[in-house]
Amino acid sequence: MATKKKAKTPTAGEAASARYTAEAADFAAGTGRYAQPLNPIYLPSTTPVTTTTQPVVTTALTDEQIRQNERAYQRQQDAAAEAEKKRRAGQSAYDLLLSEFNQYGLGSLVEPLKALIVSGPSEAELTLALRQTEPYKQRFAANAKRLASGLRALSEAEYITLEDQYQSIMRNYGLPATYYTKDATGKQAGFEKFIAGDVSAAELEDRIAIAQKRVINAAPEVTTALKQFYPDITNGDILAYTLDPTQALANIQKKVLAAEIGGAALGQGLGTSMQRAEELARFGVTGETARQGFQAVAEIAPRGSQLASIYRQEPYGQAEVETEVFGLTGSAEAAKRRRKLTELEQASFSGQAGATGGALGRERAGSF
Asked: What is the rounded (10 degree) CA torsion for 102, 106, 111, 113?
């Protein structure tokens, strides 16, 4: 009897290999556990994919379109070149303007506007921007005061020209430098009040001439009379008073003329009042005619007063003589009174001719 052969038990490796082989066969055939997919999301699509390729249509440009494109490109190039040219011109304009303004100490007015100048603004835009800067407002401050007073604002050229004229006049008259020395920006604080007050160069010269020629360099009696008549001039600086634009030139001239007349009286040892001096001025008496007239008054008045007392006439003295000499109202009556006193004196000496001698009597009679 044949012995039955015992089946060989597969090893672990062989069993695993067989299992993997069977699994692979099921996966490929879609059988076994692979008959239904575990996750339908990953089920491959069975719909055939068709790809449609759209043909690329190439349209040739017409000659006109090509020319239009070329012109558009050229305009872009021209605009870029013009912008660069404008920028360079603006930079040059700024450098030139800054250099020019620096000569007058006004560089600070230009520096804040560099960006604007380089961008090439119009003249109107630049002017408006310049006048809105703080350095400009400080440099030409009198213009704001002029506008507030109803006067027109001066242009920069007019403003600076007027300042130069002021300075030249003051230097020519030998005024101290403190009256006209300018600061780093070319500004002289004292000039601001002249410009704001609309004082012309000619008027400024008149004011200085009045102070120097007719008061400061005149006889001391003129200054004495000026301060006596007008106590508001108390600081002794006649020049500062006459240069004050708040003091009207006509008013200054009136006061100085009255002082000259009063000074002429003082120079002859006579007294007078402000009212009398101003009255004489209104009648056309000048400083020169006052000096001549008061010399005559000083000679006539004492003798006339004496005769009026001797012959018991109405008082006759300086006021009556001034009235006649300067041709004031009532001058005819004053002259008549003087002639009467002369006649009384002559009659008196005629009656004493025998005692005094004819020649001596005639010499003394009529001396008034």
From this structure: -120
Under 8 Å between Cβ of 242 and 257: no
Parse the chain into domains and list their residue ranges: 67-139, 142-198, 200-278, 283-368
Q: Is residue 247 pLDDT above 70, yes or no?
A: yes
How many angstroms separate the CA atoms of 28 and 18, rounded?
A: 16
The DSSP secondary structure of 230-254, one letter per residue, reads -TT--SS-HHHHHT-TTS-HHHHHH
The tokens for 58 are 């190439």
pTM: 0.61
Tokens 């013009």 belong to: 82
pLDDT per residue as tens digits for the range 106-124:
777 777 777 676 666 666 7
Is the confidence at residue 47, as pLDDT, over 60? no
Q: What is the 8-class DSSP label of residue 199?
A: -
Q: 282-299 as b/e, with b when 16 or more CB fall inside 10 Å?
A: eeebebebbbebbeebbe
Cβ contact 314:336 at 8 Å: no
84-101 average pLDDT score: 64
Q: How far is CA 120 from CA 124, 125, 212, in A?
A: 11, 10, 52
With 60 as the cut, is the pLDDT of residue 264 above it? yes
Provide the pLDDT for residue 357: 39
Which residue is it, tokens 């609309």?
A: 198
154, two tokens:
């001066």
Instruction: Tell me if 368 sits within 8 A of 303, measured CB to CB.
Output: yes
First to last CA, the chain: 209
